[in-house]
Predict the structure.
Amino acid sequence: MIDEYAPDAMDVATILADVPHIERLLQGIAMEGHDTSYSEFLLMLGLRFSRPKMRALCKTLDEVDRRAKAAGQPELAVLVVRESDRLPGQGWWTGRRDYQGAWTGPAARAFLNSIQAETFAYWRARSPKRKPA
């Protein structure tokens, strides 16, 4: 079945490589204080989930985090997780130097929660919706 409203291959590549747009979407998610699954995030971009699209998104997420680190900001790729267990995929774990445990289970969840909490706090403090103390 052909989806007549889906972007063509060239548009998909452009959408998935738009680092500033993906960065802004993730910053908004962080300000709201929640994570998003790979398929939910692809839908935000107007795309249906597929493994090739997910892999392309992951490359862009690496660049988003590289830019965040250069700007002294917390990472954002930590907010994109699997639907099944709400943990990031293998690529996120293998690139880390600050965690050596299993990629699933309580230790992985605790590690993820600590990084997400830092990201949420940072971006909530910069939210235009934030009420002054």
The CA atoms of residues 53 and 83 lie 16 Å apart.
